[in-house]
Structure formats: structure tokens, C-alpha cells
Amino acid sequence: MSPTSSRQRLIVTALTLALGVAGVSTAAAQERETKQTVAMSQAVYEGLTEIQTLVEAGTYGQADAKIAELRAMGDKLSPYEVAQIWNLTAYSYYLQEKYPEAIRAYDQVLAQPELPEALAQSTLKTKAQLQFTVEDYRGALVTIDKLIAMVEEPAADVLMLVGQAHFQLGDYDAALAPIKQAIDMYREQGNEPKENWLLILRVIYYEKKDFPNMINVLEELIQYYPKDQYLLTLAGAHSELEDTMKQLVIVENLYEAGYIKTQNHIINLANLYLLHETPYKSAALLDKEMKAGIVDENERNLRLLSQAWYTAREDEKSIPPLERAAQLTNDGELWVRLCQSHLNLTNWSEAASAARKGLAAGGLKREDTANVMLGMALFNQEKYEEARQAFQRASRDERSRRAAQQWINYVDSEIKRVALMSQELPTNTQPTQLEQLLQEAEAAVGNDEG
User: Fold this and answer.
1) Taking 50 as the threshold, does the pLDDT of residue 23 lie above it?
2) What whole-number distance in Å separates Cα of residue 353 and Cα of residue 341?
3) Long-range contact list for 267-270, CB < 8 A, 24+ apart?
4) CA neighbor of 213 nearest in space, from 162, 182, 221
5) For a tag on the chain, would you pick the N or C end, based on fewer CB atoms within 10 A?
6) How far is Cα of residue 292 from the mean position of the Cα atoms in its chain?
């Protein structure tokens, strides 16, 4: 072969590898000899070079005209030259995002006889990737199987294509083995596993509810590609395994490092604090983020804040958010809870007011209990008749009858005691018999002295 023909062969081979969306590795291509000596005429070579320039410049109409001129050479073209023309045609379609046309053009490449293995492999791989683009995952699996049949051992990225196709079809069991194999192979070669490969593996384990293995993948993701989102996902995985302490540690560290800034994550942290009996931290967190405008002051969040303060035995601090929540919703249960907080602080008037609002709002699970609380608040204000009426209403419910009756008895005794204390003592102007005797005795003594 002449030096010129040899140079053309090398240039066109390089062109072939460049045209593919993702070609086979150079090392793999060098391991195999082609089935025929790759030869190309000067005219075809120059024509392909010109077409490539036009395609990459985006002048597709002119490129198509030049491609048509080359094809018009008919029988003068070798199968290899025909393959290269179709290869460049496919590349043009790819750049124009005409993916179905590009796939059909690559089929024409593969249809040529005695195709060099390097070109066949790169074409199959590129076709499979384009089939992914048009979501033809079953077709991609068929194409990849043909590629695997041509090699002694498929590369890691080829195995990933198999796994990804099964993944896209929702067959996670079939996807797992090739994806794991690809990642292990990549790792054994001294490479860090690709981020998107690990992400797919994480999703598979999540779908299979295999949270221990999902945690292992997340820890590797954090090791190589540290992101706060992966830490949050790791915290969620620990939650699925009911290891909420590890979840709390991760989320708390993220918050303190400034990575957690959204309402949902902050509320989640507040709930974790409550779960692990650190209510003061929960309340302080919610109070701070409400004032900062990050956490909404809605009924649910205010109720949580009040509960946190109440559990932390900060009764006074628990009242304002609970009162705002009750005012927002006019929820009877919230008013009754507010009444209980006021009772704890001996705020009798406020407790009675909250109880009355709760009873008026209705929808209470235990109206009898609300009446008992109202009666207690009224009793401590010495409003005995009103208190007695509240306890009487409570006594209609069998669950509170005994306690209510005891309160009624106590109220009645207080009413009697107050009535007795308010009575004036009788005044008697007539001397008693004893007084008369004393007076007579004093008079007799006086007479004797006289």
C-alpha cells in the first residue's frame, strides 16, 4: 500500500472514532485486527472530509448534497466507503437531533459486509445510546447483546448500558447484577465509581427496600461526591431502618453547618429532637426559624412549637403559640389545651375563657373534661354557682360523673361555709342568768362594805 493510502486509512479510522457519539476504546480497537484491509480512495476521503466540515458548521443542506454526490458513485464504492458515508450521515442526523433517522443510518453502516470490528463495535454502542434517547430500551438491549457477542469481556460502560436499560424498564432485579458488576470492574481498575452509576444503584436498592445496601451506596457517594442532599438521603435511609438517633445526628450536623435551610427539613429536625427527648432544642429551633420567616406560623407549626415548650416544662412560653393556633382555627381541642396550660399557671380567668371558647367551638372528644376544667377555673375565682353548673354538665358523662360529683359536694360545702360566715351574730340585750347572779353578788358585797 502506498504511503498516501496508509495515511488516508489512519485519518479515516480516526474520523470514524470521532464521528460516533461514544466510540469503543482505542486499546480495544488495537487488540483486534480488522476483517479486511481498510482502504479508501482519494476522492471519497476528500469528499468525507469536506462533508464533515460542513456538518460541524451546521450547513446540513450542503452536506446532504455532497453525501448524495458520493453515493452516486454506486458500484465504484467499496463496502467500507459506503459504511463511512452512512456513518457520517448518521452523525449529521445526530447533530440535528433527528435520532430515529440517525438510528436507521447506523443500521445501514452495520448492514455493510466485512465491516471492521472496531467500526462495528463503535456503531453498535452508538446506536444503543441513541435508542436510549428515543426511549427504545428493549431495542437497546438487543443492540447491546450484539455488541457483547463480539467481545471477550464487555467493558464497564457496556455493562452499565445493560443495567440502565433494565432499570428504565422497571426490572430492578435484572438491572442490579450488571450495574454492580460495572461499578466493581471500574473500582478494580483503580477508578472512582461514576456518580450517576452510584445514583442508579441507590435508586434500585431504594425500590427494593434494601436500605442497608442503600446506606452503603450513599456512604460511597458522600465519600467521592460530598453533597448535603446525599447526607439528607442517608438520614432518611436510617429513618427507614428506625435508627432515628443516627438520623438526628446527621440532620443536626447539617443544620449547624448551614446546609439545612428549608421548612420541611427544619420541622423534621424539630420532631427528631422531640422524639429523642430534647424538647427545649426543638422549641428553640422552631421559635428561631419562625422569627426568621423560614417556618410558617400556621396552625400545625404553632401547635408543634407549643407542644415543644410544654414538654420542656416552659408553660408560659407554650401559651402564645397555642393561643395563636387556636385563634387561627377556632379548634375546640386547641382551646381546651390552652385552658390546661392556663390552669397549670393558675391563670384562672384565662383558663375559664379558653374553656368556654372550646365548648362553644364544639367538636370536642371529651366535652365532660372541658366542663370539669371550666368548673375548676370558676371555683378558684370563687364563682361557685357557675362552677357548680359546669360540674353538673360534666356529671352527665359517666366517665366524669364520680369526679364531677365530688366537686359538686365540695362546691356545696363551700357555698354553705361562705353563707355561714356571712351571717351576723345575734345581739342579746337581756342579761343571762349567770350575769344576773354575778350582778346580785357584786351588789351584796357592796352592801356589806357599806
Assistant:
1) no
2) 12
3) 267/295, 267/301, 267/304, 270/304, 270/308
4) 221
5) C
6) 22
Query: What are the boundaries of each domain within the chain?
Result: 1-120, 331-409
Give per-residue pLDDT as tens, 75-130.
Answer: 889 999 999 999 999 999 999 999 999 999 999 999 999 899 999 999 999 999 99
Q: Which of 361, 386, 363, 367 is nearest to 375 (CA)?
A: 386
| CATH class, 331-409 region | mainly alpha
Among candidate residues 313, 314, 354, 309, the one with its CA nearest the CA of residue 334: 354
Closest residue by Cα to residue 84 from 13, 138, 31, 3: 13
Give the pLDDT confidence of 188-200 residue by residue, as tens digits: 999 999 999 999 9
CA 42/CA 40 separation, integer angstroms: 7
The cell numbers describing 214, all together, are 442503600
Contacts of 95 (CB under 8 A, 6+ apart): 55, 56, 58, 60
